[in-house]
Amino acid sequence: MKKSMIFLVSSLLLSTPSFAAGDAAAGKAKSATCVACHGAKGISTNPIYPNLAGQHAEYITAQLKAFKSKKRINAVMDPFIQALSDKDMEDLGAYYESLGAGSDDSSGGGRRRRR
Amino acid sequence: MKKSMIFLVSSLLLSTPSFAAGDAAAGKAKSATCVACHGAKGISTNPIYPNLAGQHAEYITAQLKAFKSKKRINAVMDPFIQALSDKDMEDLGAYYESLGAGSDDSSGGGRRRRR
After folding, report:
1. What is this model's ipTM?
2. CB–CB contacts below 8 A, A to B
3. Is A81 inside a domain boundary?
4. Structural domain boundaries enclosing A80
5. pTM higher than 0.80 for the full model?
6. Quick check: is A5 in a domain?
């Protein structure tokens, strides 16, 4: 009983932090190649590309990892993804989440245009 | 290299006009099953699920079609996707785009919490 409680508690403790929080400032520095499609502030001007501003860091990181492992396949992302480490993907997730959905974007793209 | 560039350019050219604008009001009515994961206003409370509020309609519709065709695979989406017609997916895209990124969400989920 005691043993199974320890197992339960430790597996709960282990399960949540499987997502490592990234560093938004580092992510900003790494986002230079993302800008062409996803916009300077994470708001893409072409509607075939997703807005990233304010998206959950965990979701963004998971998708980047899926692209890298080819679980999710996209020809446009492919040339960029292989160079990214897990840390890079976590930092990028943290950066785009930190922008917030109503991020100041002077280009007036996607979301804000439609408010 | 040249071949892949031609493929990339032609697929970009082809992808734009194939998108038919959906009906946001109809999409709202069809979004009932989406709420559990993506939130009442398209802001998901669990960071593993994407926020949809203010996302480009065309991107959302393309992803729904990719789930249906199994080009993009996700076990959670799978039970819901097969029942959706192209029109349903276009309407859902239009609805979530229409919400805008700063949509009033009394549950205070994802994006707004981080502003």
Report:
1. 0.75
2. 93
3. yes
4. 24-101
5. no
6. no
